Task: inverse folding
């Protein structure tokens, strides 16, 4: 073979290998598409809150966030709050079964104040919803089981 053909073949192989490496790095990076922050207690509101960080698309720069709110007076649930629309949009059932943890509210039932949402507005728990604003079908990760305890709540 001529030197030109050998060089072309070598460059093609290098480009293919680089493409595979980039694809693997993109797949690994998608593991950081969403994550939960730590809990903190808000004494004025009498609840614990943590942030849920997400990227609507894998290439989105930075993170958007929603809040996960746990009221000690409602110990079974963690409520998801969208600070952009200023509304609660669903809840995570801490006693739910695998694959049936989340109750997604209809748009008309989403309210700024939890007290304004009747219990019957929450449907039976099912799978976790997709990442907010996502165009693909990636679900929100199930919340870690590190819920605050009674000792984390000042009396």
Result:
């Amino acid at each position: 073979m001529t030197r030109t053909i050998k060089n072309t073949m070598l460059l093609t192989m290098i480009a293919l290998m680089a493409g595979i490496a980039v694809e693997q790095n993109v797949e690994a990076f998608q593991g950081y598409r969403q994550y939960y922050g730590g809990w903190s207690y808000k004494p004025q509101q009498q609840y614990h809150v943590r942030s849920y960080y997400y990227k609507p698309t894998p290439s989105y720069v930075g993170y958007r966030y929603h809040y996960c709110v746990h009221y000690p007076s409602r110990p079974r649930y963690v409520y998801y709050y969208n600070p952009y629309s200023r509304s609660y949009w669903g809840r995570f059932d801490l006693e739910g079964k695998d694959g049936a943890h989340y109750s997604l509210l209809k748009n008309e039932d989403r309210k700024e104040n939890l007290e304004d949402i009747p219990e019957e507005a929450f449907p039976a728990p099912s799978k976790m919803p997709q990442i907010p604003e996502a165009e693909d079908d990636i679900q929100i990760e199930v919340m870690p089981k590190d819920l605050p305890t009674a000792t984390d709540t000042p009396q």
In short: The radius of gyration is 22 Å. The helical segments are 3-29. Residues 1-32 form one domain.
